[in-house]
Description:
Layout: H1 4-24, H2 32-46, E1 53-54, E2 57-58, H3 65-77, H4 81-106, H5 109-120, H6 123-128, H7 135-155, H8 158-175, H9 178-194, H10 203-215, H11 217-228, H12 243-256, H13 270-278, H14 282-291, H15 301-319, H16 332-345, H17 347-376, H18 382-401, H19 407-434, H20 438-448, E3 455-458, H21 464-470, E4 476-477, E5 488-492, H22 496-501, E6 506-514, H23 522-525, H24 527-533, E7 535-542
Parallel strand pairs: 3-4, 3-5
Antiparallel strand pairs: 1-2, 5-7, 6-7
Amino acid sequence: MVSGGHRGQIQIILAWLVVVVAGLFVPLMDNDSAHHANIALRMYLTGDYVSLIDYDGPYLDKPHLHFWLTALSYHLFGVTGFAYKFPSFLFSLIGIWSVYRSGILINNKNTGLVAAVVYASSASFLLSLNDVRMDAILTSSVAISIWQLLGYLKFGSRRYMLGLAAGLAIGFCTKGHIAIVIPVLFALFYMFFRGDWKPLFNLNVLGGIALFLLFILPVVYCYYKQFNLHPEVVVRGKDHINGIRFILLDQSIGRYGGEMGGDGKGDKLFFFHTFLWAFAPWSILLISSLIIKKGGKQLGVIAKSVIGVLIVFAVLLGLSSFKLPHYLNVILPLAALCVAELTIRKEEMVQPILKWTMWIVWLLIGVISSLVLVWWFPQQSVMFWVGFTVLLINMFYVNKKNSGGDIINQIKNIAAGVFVIFWILNVGFYPSLLRYQGGKELASVLENENFNKPVLSLEGFYSSSFYFYYKQLRAGIEIGAVENNGSFLLFDQKQEAELIKKGIVWKREWSVTDYEITRIGIKFLNPETRQILCTKLKLVELVNN
């Protein structure tokens, strides 16, 4: 017979799977998700897995691994949003397991279980499995690296060094140097607080470096072949690009210095206010347990090491000219391990904080469900209401079963509430919001009509979701080159007047409502003012003079 503890674990796992798998079927958002999906789509359609090509030419930014995995998934499942998200889902499972194993190495299975639940139910982690970019794979690679690093530092085994090299290489080949910086910082702080630097001065370290360089060789070679062998290639106004130097050095420096764009340049406290929601609801527990009376005293080596990493990362991110909220995902595995160690070591101290955290989660369920289901998007599917009801019942059952229970059960109680919130978001809020993203909607209209003609996109117009779901690479055309020649032209309603002024005439038209949903505001969420903010995407069949 399954014990109560095991039954509770199974309930949490099933609730997590229900919420996350539902998110895998939410359509892709424009900008990063659909944009990256199109880069992989080009690989899939052309068979060129060496070159990274963007809409307007060579893509000189992120490495290849995410795109390779996505293209492979297209071959397995077809070109769908699910196929794009599936590799990240698989890596998330590996990441959760890695955090669990790390917790066991730190202390015991209870520590591992708390760390895994905290990590898997943190806000930014769950968001990364719906609005999929590169961060799910990157964060999992960091989790793998931390697990293998702890194993190596504890046992000195070459097997762990091999795993560490593989984890670092996966992260580097996904998003660059940040995948190396976080584990290395953790290793340095860990050895410093232990007062033991011997693992650093070991031939196994040289072997690990050699293995890492071997593992990243395919990506380095691709940059060499695309850029070093083609000095005529121009990216951001520059030619004679050294692809090897870019991926080994310039990629992170350029982004850090703002040469590749920047968000939040003047926000020196970006890390702190973003961390509050990115690691929610567990940021409440982590911060409170450090600042309350005696909370910051007698910390273990792991907690000290993690806090050291968080401080350095906060300073680096604060000084950076380019910062986005999902950049904090790389520290989630370490933050989860820190929470686990604090809760296990200081159980009596954190008990009141856990109770307050549970109340806050319940309050958020009430507020979010009221906003989404009563005001913003009250019309929801039967599937939404069935899942919402089941997860609510599960939350109340878990809480009743674990009432007055130990620290692990209280962690499960909070996680069960978080999953209710993300069901509302993944199955209620985001699908409703995405009905106003015109690219996917227009592609669906054309698919229903079995329309598969080549489409030209007017200069200045981009809709990554349209190109992806229409399964066609973007073919752009300048307005000066548009002629009444019977072709099919895609543009934004705001460009219509200029076409008419030029004498362009069409005989057939498809149009859908469109809004840039990644930049929503209260006026858009308010149903009474929503429509006035929207525009139209139009696909027209030009006359043939």
